[in-house]
Amino acid sequence: MNHLVKPTDLDKVLEILANIIEKPTNIQHSIRDKFMSTIEKTLRVLVVDDNADQANSLSLLLKANGYDSHACVNALDCVALVERLRPEVVLLDLAMPGKSGYAIAQEIKDNSALRAIRLIAVTGHGLPLDRVHSNVSGFEHHLEKPVCFEDLEKVLQSVQDQE
Predict the structure, then answer these.
(1) Do 43 and 89 contact (CB within 8 A), yes or no?
(2) Total domains, the chain
(3) Which end of the chain has fewer surrounding CB within 10 Å, N or C?
């Protein structure tokens, strides 16, 4: 096993790195494979919520977990941003000022160029009737706030597996 001692000799560092590249360990293979699969399968996700803190923090959390994530805090700008970004998934709050998540979903589904985008409701509305309404409106999943990140990841993984 190679060890570095301070002060570190640059030649020694280069030698250790060369050995790692030439003869990677199982752990290094695992890390490399996970990294490569993340690069190959990164979903582009748009988080739409009028609460800027919620939209931005969820978007940052998604980025930290390997997703190409963006946030939108203005419902009126949402469809234009969807047209520009072309995300695979839109996480959409249902109750926003200016335009509801249901209206945004309808605009996305009415646009043939955007129809394939997967819609996921992320909302404080959790009654059974709310779930039926979101399903009829074109949402594939309905997650209640506060969202459990593990549940969201399962949903995103199922979307990714279907891509």
Answers:
(1) yes
(2) 2
(3) N
